[in-house]
Amino acid sequence: MSKNAVLVVGDKKVELPILEGTEGEVAVDISRLRQQTGLITYDPSLGNTGICKSEITFIDGEKGILRYRGIPIEDFTDKPNFVEVAWLLIFGRLPNKSELAEFSALLTDNELLHEGLRHQYQHIPVDAPPMAILSATLSNLACFHQQLLARQDPESLAGAAARLISKVRTIAAFSYRRSQGLPFIYPDPGMRYCANYLHMMFSIPHRQYLVSPEVEDALNLVFILHADHEQNCSTTTVRAVGSAGANLFASCAAGVSALWGPLHGGANVEVVQMLERIHGGGMSAADCVQAAQDKNHPFRLFGFGHRVYKNYDPRAKILKEACDRVLTTLEYSDPLLDIARRLEELALKDPYFIERKLYPNVDFYSGVLLRAMRIPTNMFTVCFAIGRLPGWIAQWKELHEDPQRRILRPRQIYTGRAETRYVRMADRQG
Ligand code: SDX
User: Fold this and answer.
1) pTM
2) Counting CB atoms within 10 angstroms of each CB, which of 133, 194, 324, 420 has the fewest?
3) What order do you get walking across the sheet with 26-28 strand by strand?
């Protein structure tokens, strides 16, 4: 591959450097294009544009490959440990025993919410969307941990990261308890990360709550599979907010808002609601597959399709297998799983989906697994956010460690009115 691309536009000709990534991805570096030619490029959804160099996650969308710090996602499925993967993503390598123990202890030390934050729940409607509570409360952490706002030294970052990763469970569980009119269950410092979250969600005072190893492993796996995914919409949002110098709490709160969208993390809720509609007789799986193709019909086959994967999302494959394994172990059958399988079978044989390379993505089976853990549908995207938090933190940290970092500020092509003058009210028509 030559070192430069040559761009010729009219009488302008410029050589642009070619960049090559570890796995052979190639990019044309246009970072000085406007300065050299007065031209900009146009790529409204950024599908053809790299906004950074990153060492965190690698995706090969054509081959269905996903790696965290070079490690294939499949390597984390045996005895999954979400806290270990969080450390890997944030600090760049697998932790040794004492590092993992130290990080786990830091999470335990930071699992409680400030009582001032807990009191805010009293004034929140019981039917408030949990993602609204999550975004607002992550941002509010800045009110209670001001010492972590200004500095970006490694110790402050580790402190902010631990508070976010640990407290996100407490915030999520409290929003669920509020919605059910149940007493808040405080975190138990003797419990591991995922078991503690389920304890805060489902424990009943003075009754012992036990988490089965299968469910604890399954939740670790769900969080790991959601932990990072390079420059997706919510991660790009976190980077954009962080590029302005905003603190980590504000940046992750913005990420939650982007993730909430039904085209992004909110799809896991849409999938289960779609499956429930089919189960309730509202429409058949075949109707869904047809409706998804009708451009005049707003319906999309949620949990299908992906901007990057043009092959089976490796996370969906793992989640589908986990559904079979966990539901069997729990002796729990869910008709929605059979419907999901039927839907996948029909879609993967349909020319519309085949031509567009539309496959199940991470959201297609995740909800069935979360249901098996008794997590309510409106908490699914919150679980996605709990999983994604270490990825957002790792990407934010990488951005701040980049000596060439600049505030994100894209350009545009103006298509509005040419210059005109202000007209006084008395002189306006109509
Ligand atoms: C996540 O980016 C990430 O990495 C995200 C994520 C992560 O981990 O962060 O992987 C998590 O967000 C997964 C995606 C969850 N969203 C959904 O499941 C919603 C349903 N999927 C679609 O809305 C869509 O596939 C997107 C949003 C995921 C991707 O949208 P693109 O890349 O903009 O694709 P597109 O809309 O341009 O689609 C190309 C064609 C279009 O048809 P034509 O115009 O060519 O005729 O495929 C069609 C689309 O209409 N299409 C679908 C479809 N997805 C794409 N048609 C029906 N049902 C679908 N689900």
Assistant:
1) 0.97
2) 420
3) 4-9, 12-20, 26-28
Residue of 264, 299, 354 to test ligand 1 pocket, by largest number of atoms within 8 Å of CB: 264
- How high is the mean pLDDT of the chain? 96
Provide residues with CB under 6 Å of ligand 1.
229, 232, 263-265, 267, 292, 300-308, 356, 358, 361-363
Shortest-distance Cα residue to atom 54 of ligand 1: 305
The residue whose CA has the least distance to atom 14 of ligand 1 is 264
Report how far residue 303's alpha carbon sits from residue 31's, in angstroms, rounded to the nearest whole number: 35
State the closest ligand 1 atom to the C-alpha of 295, by its place in the atom list counted from 1.
50
- Measured between alpha carbons, how far is 269 from 381 in angstroms, rounded to an integer? 7
What element of type H or E holds 395? Answer: helix 380-401
Instruction: List the residue whose alpha carbon is closest to atom 45 of ligand 1.
Output: 356
Alpha helices in 75-153 (DSSP H): 82-91, 97-109, 115-120, 130-144
CB atoms inside a 10 Å sphere around CB 310: 15
Ranges of H-type helices in 260-362: 267-279, 285-291, 314-329, 335-349, 351-355
The one catalytic residue in 306, 313, 334, 350 is 306
- Ligand 1 atom with least separation from CA of 292: 57
Quick: pLDDT tens for 219-262: 999 999 999 999 999 999 999 999 999 999 999 999 999 999 99
| 3-class SS letters over 5-24 | EEEEECCEEEEEEEEECCCC
Residue 116 has pLDDT above 90, yes or no: yes
Q: Residue 170: which of 130, 194, 200, 203 has the closest Cα?
A: 200
